[in-house]
Amino acid sequence: MEPTRSADELAAAFVDDVDRHGCGLIKIGVGPDRLTEDERDALRAAAVAHHATGAPIAVHLEQGAAADLVLAALDADEVDPRSIVLGHLGRNPHVEQILEAARSGAWVCLDTPSPGHPMDPARLARVLELLIDDGRLPALLLGADTTTATSRARPEEYGPAALLTTVAPQLARALGAEAVSTITRDNPARAWAFEPGDSTPEQKISPRLSATG
């Protein structure tokens, strides 16, 4: 399927969402094996919009894979890894690939269990422990990637409520309360913080598109 928008059109839409509609992040997604043409366009558009607005870029990594390809593409457009949030990395069965992604300096978001993506809670603790031992505590985030009716019907097990009331206490026993507080409170505050600009979307995006087009 051909992309319905060019990279420039998508970048303009991202900037408009941030500037006019108050969006706090730029969200894109990629598949697990390679970057398709439309995914490369989306990455380029996200980079342009990030430079125009300052908003962080959140990336859906299918199966937690392809972080290296995403990071390389965004690095080519001079995006600071500290402005990139890599989502769903915990679904990658290869822990070394998770560690490599974390060592890039990007934010690492691991999901808590959900009906669509069941996970042994002990594995989540082990992966977090490995990342902390590798010095990555300041870049760790937790997600609750589920919005299904099944999950909403069981808030004590799944979703944002369970992350704070069930998962976090379990992790605190394994990792320590201070580390879990850092992951659930301090890190999100830093990961999603940015200073919006005061020029119009057109003024901000046009020079960047000219330079990268």
Structure write-up:
This protein has a five-stranded parallel β-sheet with strand order 1-2-3-4-5. The protein starts with 6 loop residues before the first helix and ends with a helix. With 213 residues, the protein is α/β, with parallel strands linked by helices. The chain has helices spanning 7-21, 37-53, 67-76, 95-102, 121-133, 149-152, 159-175, 177-191, 201-212, and strands at 26-30, 57-61, 84-87, 107-111, 140-143. The chain has nine helices and five strands, in the order αβαβαβαβαβαααα. Helix 4 links the parallel strand 3 and strand 4. 52% of the residues lie in helices and 11% in strands. The protein has a single domain (7-201), classed as Metal-dependent hydrolases (TIM Barrel, Alpha-Beta Barrel). Helix 1 runs antiparallel to helix 9 (201-212). The model has no long low-confidence stretch (mean pLDDT 89). The radius of gyration is 18 Å and the shape is globular.
The level 1 CATH classification is Alpha Beta
What is the CATH H-level superfamily? Metal-dependent hydrolases
Biggest sheet strand line-up? 1-2-3-4-5
Q: What sequence of helices (H) and strands (E) makes up the elements? A: HEHEHEHEHEHHHH
In terms of per-residue confidence, which ranges show pLDDT below 50 for 5 or more consecutive residues? Answer: none
- What form results from the Cα inertia axes? globular
Classify the helix fraction into a percent range: 40-55%
Please count the helical segments.
9
> Which CATH-level-2 architecture?
Alpha-Beta Barrel
CATH fold-level name: TIM Barrel
- Give the percentage of residues in beta strands: 5-15%
Report the end-to-end length measured between terminal Cα atoms: 23 Å
Based on helices, strands and strand pairing, what is the structural class? alpha/beta
Mean pLDDT: 89
